[in-house]
């Protein structure tokens, strides 16, 4: 089955590379946000358990980890506000599928530019240096712009205006950009997108809890 799927994918990619990548990235975005929402539900269940701990669960490892994760966005004091994890947000998942779908053509052109500007040929000396230049150009030029587009798109798609976009940049843009510069980010695309989803959601929850 896997072999058939791989052959199908390769055939589609050979005929329509950009569109096939758009669909693939949209699916990965949906998987990433589903992972993020699952983690959020798990965090809320752990928060509820902390408010009414069962024997043997008061100081377990996961409770300690969740407590550290929730320092930025404290849970509501009222038990009625945290009785159950939030329902799955399909609109949020669609937003996380729409963004990579829309951005893929631009990314495709950018990677084509890098490939033409810094060609890598097998058996030719200096291939490692060319690859390093590609990574450097991508991280220093495209990554900041792409991240700015991401937070702007997500905030506007959620119904936010100019003020909400400015606050999003003020609160989470620089930390997210610093995380993007970590070497492992480029090898775990789904985990990185899940991180973006959690960061974006955490900021929205913080605003909601602070409002009267």
From TrEMBL:
Name this polypeptide is given: Uncharacterized protein
InterPro entries for this protein: Mpv17_PMP22
Keyword Protein biosynthesis carried by entry: no
Matching PANTHER family: PEROXISOMAL MEMBRANE PROTEIN 2, PXMP2 MPV17, VACUOLAR MEMBRANE PROTEIN YOR292C
Entry's transmembrane regions: 140-161, 181-198
Main location class: membrane
Membrane topology designation: Multi-pass membrane protein
Location of the protein in the cell: Membrane
Keyword terms: Membrane, Transmembrane, Transmembrane helix
GO cellular component: membrane; mitochondrion
Lineage of origin: Eukaryota, Fungi, Dikarya, Ascomycota, Pezizomycotina
Domain of life: Eukaryota
Presence of the UniProt keyword Transmembrane helix in the record: yes
Family, similarity comment: Belongs to the peroxisomal membrane protein PXMP2/4 family.
């Amino acid at each position: 089955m896997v072999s058939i799927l791989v052959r199908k994918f390769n055939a589609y990619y050979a005929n329509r590379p950009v569109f096939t990548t758009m669909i693939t990235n949209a699916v990965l975005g949906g998987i990433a946000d589903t992972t993020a929402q699952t983690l959020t539900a798990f965090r809320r269940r752990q928060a509820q358990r902390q408010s009414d701990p069962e024997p043997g669960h008061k100081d377990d490892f996961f409770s300690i980890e969740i407590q550290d994760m929730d320092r930025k966005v404290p849970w509501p004091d009222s038990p009625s506000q945290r009785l159950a994890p939030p329902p799955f947000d399909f609109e949020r998942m669609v937003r996380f599928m729409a963004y990579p779908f829309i951005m893929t053509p631009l990314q495709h052109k950018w990677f084509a530019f890098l490939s033409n500007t810094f060609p890598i040929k097998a058996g030719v000396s200096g291939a490692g240096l060319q690859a390093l230049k590609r990574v450097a150009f991508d991280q220093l030029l495209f990554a900041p712009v792409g991240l700015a587009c991401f937070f702007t798109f997500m905030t506007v798609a959620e119904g936010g205006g100019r003020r909400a976009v400015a606050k999003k940049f003020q609160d989470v843009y620089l930390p997210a950009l610093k995380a993007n510069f970590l070497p492992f980010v480029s090898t775990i695309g789904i985990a990185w997108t899940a991180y973006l989803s959690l960061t974006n959601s955490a900021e929205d929850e913080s605003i909601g809890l602070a409002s009267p």
